[in-house]
Fold this protein.
Amino acid sequence: MEITILAFGIAKDIFGRAWIKVKLAEAATTADLKSHLETQYPRLKKLASYMVAVNNEYAEDDGILTVHDEVAIIPPVSGG
Amino acid sequence: MQTQIEIHSELLNIQQCIDWVMSPDSGGIDVFIGTVRNATKGRTVLKLEFEAYKPMAIKEMQKISELVFERWPVQKVLIHHRTGTLQVAEIPVIIAVSAKHRDAAFEACRYIIDTLKQTVPIWKKEFFEDGEVWVAAHP
């Protein structure tokens, strides 16, 4: 399946754009997505941390992704 | 239980925020106003840029507000956050809380800004004379 991944903050700099498309196996998990992205974009591993958000909620590593989800990479937040 | 949560690209209005949380049965209002500081670790800051994942940021701020109402006897909670480019001394965030008694207002306001900085998907980039940095991105 192909999923669109939104990127914010430094993740946008790392991807070079505000969103990318990623091909994953059916029933892939958040952890699968992270390892896929880290292979393709090793700079992600240098971040203090980063989270994946699915449908506007922070996602657990074992959460299963579908093509209908809105998926975003959330690097360390720094609002306020 | 009333909450007003907004993310704007225009100037935040302090007086409007205070007016919104004020009510006749309140005994006090606590307000936190974040401002852009002119230096970080001795380096001169020229400006900041704020970016938000707006729908999720609103949702996370709503969660904070809900928790505040569960935990403290407060009356109104307001959180306004700016996005876009901000110059030194401009205001990226205003939090205002009204309550019958001041303890609840102080504690809730403190909790909101502390939690916002940890959970709300908003990012700040600092611009220096010799470069730019996404705050907190790297260890």
